[in-house]
Amino acid sequence: MKTNKIYIESVIGELIDKITILEIKRKKISNKNSLSSINKEYSVLKKILKKNIKVSKQLKNQWNLLKQTNLKIWEMEDQKRLTQKHLEKLSQLAKNVYKFNDRRAEIKQKINKITGSNLREIKKYAKY
User: Fold this and answer.
1) 73 vs 115: CA distance, rounded Å
2) Res 43: pLDDT
3) Cβ contacts of residue 99 below 8 Å, gap of 6+?
4) Of 7, 17, 36, 100, which has the highest C-beta tally within 10 A?
């Protein structure tokens, strides 16, 4: 089912923001199907901008700053996602250390009980 075109009024900053993000996507995304959709949207928005807005030097400067900012956000998002994977792995590793340390303490207690050890090792950790 094909949807009719939808036209909405928007602030110009939002339009330029969207175009800068599409410019970044055109460089960062290599999937041909995705690029086809990106290029289609980019073309439509650029035509709307060209028809309605005179791009002055001052506007172009702000455009470039916005694109640089969006690129930085893109890079930080990538780093955040990579870091999140490592944090999840680190979290799982830490949980396993707790479990094995608890198991180790249980085994040592049993050894001490079996051997009638004169001393007792006491362990007390916060619950996890």
Assistant:
1) 62
2) 98
3) none
4) 17
Please write down the long-range contacts of 93-98, taking CB distance under 8 Å and 24 or more positions apart: 95/128, 98/125, 98/128
Which residue in the block uniquely carries the two structure tokens 């001393």? 119
**Using CA atoms, how far apart are residues 58 and 93, in angstroms rounded to an integer?**
52
Assigned token pair, 74: 């893109």
Q: Residue type for 122, please? A: I
DSSP state letter for 119:
S
Give me the helix-helix angle, 57-115 and 12-28, nearest 10°.
60
Helices (H), 1-128: 12-28, 32-52, 57-115
pLDDT given at position 128? 64
Residue among 22, 54, 20 nearest 40 (CA): 22
* Residues 29, 35 contacting (CB under 8 angstroms): yes
CA proximity to 21, closest of 72, 83, 61: 72
Q: Which residue has the tokens 């207690």?
A: 109
